[in-house]
Amino acid sequence: MNPAAEDNYGVDSCSLLCLSTTPAVLVIATSSGKLYHCVAMERDADETRQKEETADLSLYVYESVELELSLTTVSLETTDIVEDDFSCLITLHKDPTAVGRYFCSHSAGVHCVVVPWIGSLQSATDDDTSAVAQIFMQEQSCIVEHLVCTKPLPSSPPSPILGICVSSDPTLGLTLLCLLSTFECMALPLRSSVHIPTEGRLLSAGASEVIVSPLRSLHRQSFKSHIQQLLLQRTSCHPLLRGGATDMEAAECFQLLGRTTQVLREHYLQRHQQVMDAIERRVQALTEQKELQMHDLQAISRSKLELQDNAESLADRYEEMTDRMDEAVSRAEQLLRKLQSRTPVLSDAERSMAAELNQMQEKIDQFKSSLLQVKKKAEYQKLQVRRQSKQNGGQLVGGEQTEQLSSVLQNE
Questions:
Q1: For 352-362, what is the mean pLDDT?
Q2: What is the pLDDT of residues 154-174, one digit of tens each?
Q3: Distance (Å, rounded) from C-alpha 398 to C-alpha 389?
Q4: pTM of the full predicted structure?
C-alpha cells in the first residue's frame, strides 16, 4: 500500500469491498471505524525488481475516513468531550443501484458513503491516462451520511444491525431495508439527502450568448457553485435512533440535546452564516460594480452627446463645402468654355467653307481676266472696223459681214 505509513495502516482490518470500476477501487474497513479508499493500479517493472515482489498491482490510498460510531457528547460535569474507545466489526455492503455508493453496518448503526470521484475516474481512464492524475489533484473527498444510530451514547449498549439490503420497488422507490437486533425491519428512503453537485447548464444557455462577468476573475468557480460548496455537507450528523437508543434516562437525553444543539450550531447555523456573509460580500461587490458601470454609462452618454453635436456641425460644414465645390465647378466650366471660344482653331466645317471660298475667289479672278481679255479684243475689233471703214471710204458693212464678225467674236 502506498504511500507508506508508520503503522502500515493498522492491523485491525475487518472487511474488504471491491467497487466495480476501472481501475478497481478497494475499500478497507477497520474495527476502529476507519475506512481507506485505495486505487489498484499496475506496478512498474523497475519498482517490482527493486522491491523483489511478484505482485503486479499496488494499492494507492487516495483518502481515509473515520466513522463516528457513537455520537460525540459533552460531559455534564466538566463540559469536556466524552472520549469513547468503542470498536466493533464493520461490514461493507455494495449498493447495486449506484457504483460510487456503499453502506457500512456495525454494532452502532448504519453509515452510507458516497465516492463522487469514481465516475470521473472511469471516464478519464477511457479517454486519457493523464486525466487520471488531474482528477486526483482536485482533492475530492467522499460524503458520509449517518443513517441509523443504535448506540448514541458511550454508556448505551451495543445494538448490532443484523442485515441490510437495497430495494428498488416501483411503489416504494429506492429504499434501504435494515434488520435491527430487535428483529424490527426499518425502511429508509434513499433520496437526494446527499447531493453531489454537478456543473449543469440551463436550457436557454445554448440559445443565448454567454456573457462572462468581470467578477469571475476573482473566483475560479461560479457563485452558485461556491454557495453549493459552502452548503454541501460532507458528513450527515442527524441519524435515526433505533434499538436500545430509545430507552434513555433524562441525563442522557439532555446530553443528546446538547449534542443536537452543537451539531445545529456547527454544521448548519455556521454554514448559513458563511453563506450569508458570502452573499453580503457578493451584493456589496455587485453594488460597487453597478455604481462604476452607472458612472461609465453617464460618461458614455456625455461622450455620445458630444459626438452627436460634432457630427451635426461636421454635416453642416460638409453641406457648405459641397455647395462651394459645386459653385467652383460651374465657374470652372464657364471659364473653360470661354477659353475654348477664344482659341484660333477652326472646326472642320469652317475649314471646308474656307476652301470653298478660296476656290470661288480663284474662279472669280479667272472670270475677271477673261472678261478683261474680251473687252480688249472688242475694242481692238472696233478699232479695226473703223480703220477698214475709213479705207473703204465709208462703205458700210453688210449684213453678211456683220454676222461673220459676231461669230468670230463669240468663238474667241
A1: 91
A2: 777 888 889 999 888 777 788
A3: 12
A4: 0.54
Three-state secondary structure readout of the chain: CECCCCCCCCCCEEEEEEECCCCCEEEEEECCCEEEEEEEEECCHHHHHHHCCCCCEEEEEEEEEECCCCCCCECCCCCCECCCCCCCCCEEEECCCCCCEEEEEECCEEEEEECCHHHHHHHHHHHCCHHHHHHHHCCCCCEEEEEEECCCCCCCCCCCCCEEEEEEECCCEEEEEEECCCCCEEEEECCCCCCCCCCCCCCCCCCCCCCCCHHHHCCCCCHHHHHHHHHCCCEECCCEECHHHHCCCHHHHHHHHHHHHHHHHHHHHHHHHHHHHHHHHHHHHHHHHHHHHHHHHHHHHHHHHHHHHHHHHHHHHHHHHHHHHHHHHHHHHHHHHHHHHHCCCCCHHHHHHHHHHHHHHHHHHHHHHHHHHHHHHHHHHHHHHHHHHHHCCCCCCCHHHHHHHHHHHHHC
Alpha-carbon span 188 to 175, nearest angstrom: 6
What pLDDT does residue 198 have?
39
Averaged over 84-105, what is the pLDDT? 88
**Length of the chain (residues):** 412
